[in-house]
Design goal:
13 helices
Length: 388
C-alpha cells in the first residue's frame, strides 16, 4: 500500500485565498498514477475536522473561508488514517469580524406551540410541545423559507448532492431547522437530523464545525472549542461537554429536562432554529457535513454489505435504513439477496414508518424518471459513485 511520508504546503495564508498542498514523498519510489489518485486529505481547524477529501490525489486545493481568519489549519494527506507526523500547519492571517450580540431570546407560548424573538427581531415558530413514551420535548417539522435543494449544491459536490436527497426529504422535508428534543437523543437537529446522543458522531461533530463559524459567538457565547471538543465557559472555568466516550454533558446542556420542556431547552432550540433559518453559512455547513459523513459511511456499507458495483438507488436505501436504524444487518442482507433488492429494502419498516417509506419510494421514483438515478453504481475502489 502506498503511504505518504512528506507533504509540502504554505505555512501562512490569507482568508479568501486558495491554499495548495502536495504530497512529495512516499514509502516506495515511482508510485503508479492509480496509487497516487487514491491519496486522501483531511483538514482540521483548531483541532476540528472541517473537511475530508477521499481520493483527492497527490495535489490538494483548499479554499480558505473567512471563518478561518486568525485560526490554524492542519492539512494531512493519508492512505488509511491521517497523522500529524505527515502534515502541514498553516496559519491564516486576518481577524474575524466582530459579531453584535449576544442573542437574547424572548419566548411566547401559545398552548403547546412555542414562538420566539431574537433581539427584538421578527417572531418565529420554534416547535410544538409533544410527548413520546415517558419523555416530552419540542418538535419542528415545518419547512422554512430555505430548504435543501440538490441543484444548489451539485457544482460543489456533484452526484453526492443527489445521493443524500431521498433521506433528507424523509428526515425533514429538506428543512434546515428541523428539530426534535423529545426522544432519547435529547437533541436532534438539521435537514439530515443529526442526533446528540452518540459521542464523537453526528450532531457532536456538526456542532464542533458550527462553533467555528463567526456567528457562533452571537448565538452561543458560552460555548467554545477546547482541544477540538465542545466546551462551556463557566464562572468556575471551562468545562468540556463531550469527548470520544460520552456526550452526556452536552445532552444535558442542550436539554436538561427529559420529562418537560424547560425554558433553557426552548431557548437553545430557538437559537438553533433562528441560526439555520437566517444564516447561509450554517446551512452550507450542514450540507457539507452531511455529504462528507455519508461518503465515509457509504464506503463502510459497501464493505459490510458487498455493495461494490451496486446500483445507486439500492445503496441509497441501505444507507437510509442505517441512518434511521430501523433494521439489523441480517435483515438488510436478506433483502439484498432478494430477486428485487430495491423493493425488498423499501419494504423494511413499511408497517412502522409508512410515511417515511412512501417518501423514499416517491423520491427515488421521481429521481429515476428525471434521469438522475439509475446511471451510477458504487465503486469501492474509488469510494465514489461512477457512471455505468
Amino acid at each position: 500500500m502506498l503511504l505518504v511520508t512528506a507533504v509540502d504546503g504554505p505555512s501562512t495564508a490569507v482568508a479568501g485565498s486558495v491554499a495548495r498542498y502536495t504530497a512529495t514523498a512516499f514509502n516506495r519510489p515511482n508510485p503508479s498514477e492509480g496509487d497516487l489518485a487514491r491519496i486522501n486529505w483531511e483538514v482540521r481547524c483548531d483541532g476540528v475536522r472541517v473537511t475530508r477529501a477521499m481520493h483527492g490525489g497527490p495535489q490538494f486545493e483548499f479554499a480558505i473561508s473567512p471563518e478561518y481568519a486568525g485560526r490554524t489549519l492542519l492539512v494531512m494527506p493519508f492512505a488509511n488514517s491521517p497523522t500529524e507526523r505527515v502534515s502541514v500547519t498553516t496559519l491564516i492571517a486576518g481577524q474575524q469580524q466582530p459579531i453584535d450580540g449576544p442573542a437574547e431570546v424572548a419566548l411566547r407560548i401559545d398552548g403547546q406551540r412555542y414562538f420566539a424573538q431574537v433581539n427584538d427581531g421578527a417572531e418565529f415558530f420554534v416547535g410544538s410541545d409533544v410527548s413520546y413514551q415517558q419523555r416530552r420535548g419540542l418538535m419542528n417539522t415545518t419547512p422554512g423559507t430555505d430548504v435543501y435543494a440538490p441543484q444548489n449544491y451539485r457544482e460543489q459536490f456533484g452526484f453526492w448532492a443527489d445521493v443524500i436527497t431521498p433521506t433528507a426529504m424523509a428526515e425533514s422535508r429538506g428543512s434546515f431547522h428541523c428539530l426534535n428534543t423529545y426522544d432519547r437523543a435529547a437533541f436532534t437537529f438539521g435537514f439530515y437530523q443529526e442526533a446528540a446522543h452518540e459521542p464523537d458522531e453526528n450532531f457532536v461533530l456538526l456542532l464542533r464545525r458550527l462553533l467555528l463559524l463567526p456567528e457562533a459567538a452571537f448565538y452561543f457565547p458560552d460555548l467554545t472549542l477546547s482541544g477540538g471538543h465542545v466546551a462551556q465557559s463557566t464562572p468556575d472555568g471551562t468545562v468540556q461537554l463531550e469527548d470520544r466516550s460520552s456526550s452526556a454533558a452536552l445532552m444535558t446542556y442542550l436539554n436538561p429536562d427529559a420529562d418537560r420542556v424547560g425554558r433553557h431547552e426552548a431557548e437553545i432550540a430557538a437559537k438553533f432554529v433562528h441560526w439555520a433559518e437566517n444564516n447561509e453559512h450554517n446551512r452550507a455547513t450542514q450540507v457539507a457535513f452531511a455529504i462528507e459523513q455519508q461518503r465515509q459511511k457509504f464506503a463502510d456499507y459497501a464493505r459490510r454489505y458487498d455493495l461494490d458495483g451496486t446500483e445507486d438507488s439500492v445503496c441509497i436505501v441501505v444507507a437510509d435504513i442505517r441512518h434511521q436504524g430501523r433494521a439489523r444487518s441480517s435483515v438488510i442482507e436478506q433483502a439484498l439477496a432478494a430477486a428485487d433488492p430495491l423493493n425488498a429494502l423499501l419494504e423494511i419498516g413499511a408497517d412502522s414508518y409508512p410515511e417515511r417509506i412512501q417518501t423514499l419510494r416517491s423520491e427515488i421514483e421521481r429521481m429515476t424518471e428525471d434521469g438522475i438515478l439509475g446511471h451510477h453504481s458504487y465503486s469501492l475502489t474509488n469510494r465514489d459513485f461512477v457512471l455505468d
